[in-house]
Fold this sequence. Notes:
single chain, alpha/beta, Rossmann fold, 11-stranded mixed sheet, 7-stranded parallel sheet, elongated
Amino acid sequence: MIAVLDSPAMREADRVTIAELGLPSLVLMESAAAAVADLVAERFPGAGRIAVACGPGNNGGDGLAMARLLRCRGFDVSVGMLVARRSLKGDAAVQLELARRFGVPVSDCSRGGTARLAELLGGADVVVDALFGTGLDRPLTGRWAEAVSVVNRAGVPVVAVDLPSGLLGSSAGAEGPSVRADLTVTFAAPKVAHVLPPACWRCGEVAVAAIGIPPWVADARMSLGLVEAEDVAGWLPRRGPDAYKGTFGHLLVVAGREGRAGAAALAARAAVRMGAGLVTVATTGAAGAAVQALVPEAMVDVLEAGKGGEVAGGGIEGSLAKATAVAVGPGLGTGDGPRRLLGSILERWRGPLLLDADALTLLAGRLGTLRTRAVTPVLTPHPGELARLLGVATSEVTADRLGAACRAAEAGGAVVLAKGARTVIAGGGGVALVNPTGTSGLASGGAGDVLSGVVGALLAQGLAAREAAASGAYLHGRAAELAGERFPGAVPAGELVGYLAAAEAEVGQAG
């Protein structure tokens, strides 16, 4: 798992390395500059001229050192200083003097407007943004905002040092003006802004460079965990040579109604594919007939139909008795019958539980009722459902999906898989997790039903809530990436199920 740090954690990692381990700060700066110089030289070997925009503090020092190193490699490189030279202190001042001695042209762009910076960047083949790093704690205004605009208008590839200037290292937000980078080179560990949208979309490709901060120093200050294939490989259940279908659990999918049998069928198909030993769908007779035709591997328990083709609300006891995990919600409906049925399940079922779709709508405003459960439940809301669970506007969730997921996890004593680009998994012990897989092809009807079946199957096979949610999100997203080679737009949910095998096999190779 990759440790993701916020800005205070990164500052502490720097401090420990310098003050406690004794590595001089100037050595860290030289290592950071060398890492950026290496990547610039590798990606843009034919660059005729490289322009570096430097700001105050250590980020500007990194830029000055990088310019010197590139000049030593034969590149035509020039620097625009956005602060007066006399204002630089410490290591940044040392780097300015070194740049001067090594013959790096340094222009004073600190006075007046940004015309001098625009002139410097004009005609460059690559622009390096070394204005501000992860230490920024407020949006840029005034001439700094103008400088960002000049960088963005350069019309050539932009390489950001540590973080595109204007973004805040600890935040996924991108409300203020910020550089739009093609490549960001950060140090020791990715930061929150590198991995969560919308901020991450302004970072371009993110490369993490080792500069001398020990991995255990960064790992001890982890703010988020970025899930890797190796993590998923370690969590997935092993299939021994003497295993039988009972070894891999029995998932009960409570889903579907008249006109919505597809949701139940997609969840069931995904559960079968993800290795649940047995899958039963509890639904109405009309929906059950369609499920049996679409998913012959699944069994169907017919529930009494009520108003509008939804379940009437009773008769779930026998189905619960044979299950090892229960997934509730896809296509279920939100009328009185489904409400009674969900109440009965919450009262009678004490094992692993996944709530999705209509079950989450029925639970809105009652998250606290889950806190007494002996086994941590999994909730899989999209932003609108998460907003209803918390009683807030959807815009509040989309502005801070990580914070919303953490609040919901705490309120419900649950693991919350907050769907969306870079899915977030919060709760269940440990730091929140970020899933790096997936594409916009998942913005397709039924994709969430497939995810419910995947995670439900993993719960049935004995995975803990947090690991089941993270593994399911990773495999679901990776399946969409693989399917995207055939379906460049939306990936049909039924086709998505077919790519789960390839995603699982790929993860197995990583383990």
